[in-house]
Design brief:
It is a single chain. Helix 1 runs parallel beside helix 4. This protein is elongated. It is 64% helix and 0% strand. The chain has one domain. It is built from 6 helices and no strands.
Length: 112
């Protein structure tokens, strides 16, 4: 799959003010979308995009697990790994797309 070519720039103020919400975006992606001040923070919205892609992977893992009588549940292993990677990136103030699924998160185009 193609690597991301999108350039994202954040001010240090965006990063400092949004770290907690960026981390939360991986656990409950819609919380930052409900807060007007966080909608204007590009750092938070970037990680919200990634969190939505991760949420979709979670749904797909559940569906495949149901259809294949549990064999598809193996998708939860990369889900947990991507979750940890995303939270670590957000806590370090970095904006790196998640491997394999990060490029799909950018399709939501929340970063203005």
């Amino acid at each position: 799959m193609a690597e991301s070519t999108r350039q994202v720039n954040f001010t240090p103020e965006d990063v400092n003010n949004g770290k907690t919400m960026a981390i939360l975006a991986y656990l409950i992606f819609f919380i930052p979308l409900l807060m007007d001040d966080m909608k204007r923070n590009n750092f938070v919205m970037y990680h919200t995009e990634q969190g939505i892609a991760l949420f979709i992977l979670n749904i797909l893992a559940g569906i495949l697990g149901t259809i294949t009588c549990g064999i598809g549940l193996i998708l939860y292993i990369p889900w947990v790994i991507f979750l940890i990677m995303g939270i670590m990136n957000a806590s370090k103030g970095e904006a790196k797309p998640l491997p394999l699924i990060g490029q799909f998160g950018e399709k939501f185009n929340l970063v203005k």
